[in-house]
């Protein structure tokens, strides 16, 4: 599943499924993601940095193929500037959980968010899962508005943040 390059005000980037040879560039983006938005992701910069490269490369190889989990990146050449992942929901056969959505600050508002989520949605549909769900930290209004613009609807469900129980996450859904 590849897409045509996305032309944005920030430049041109190809949004595509991650490949095994992307491990080092994805690791660099992951560390940036964690430093920029520590509440949005489920590990710390220190935890990610401590993971051996071989383990990280194996994880990237695993999500580069198959229907259980996939990651997509925005690649303008050089450093990756965006990421979105999808994983089959264990208890809902028709649902893909969207996770780890991120854009480098300079590329926010560029249209790449749409392209990344579109790739997750196309993959989800191809795998027979017609619905997407994501969780957003309550109070992250910028992300909430961006996901609403992409058609996600707040379900009213609130769950504890997996790492910081005093925070809540809200669930949003839309068709894939």
From TrEMBL:
Swiss-Prot/TrEMBL keywords: Acyltransferase, Transferase
InterPro entries named among the record's database cross-references: Acyl_CoA_acyltransferase, Bact_Acetyltransf, GNAT_dom
SUPFAM superfamilies attached to this UniProt entry: Acyl-CoA N-acyltransferases (Nat) (SSF55729)
Domain N-acetyltransferase: 13-176
Domain of life per record: Bacteria
Protein name: GNAT family N-acetyltransferase
Organism (species): Micromonospora solifontis
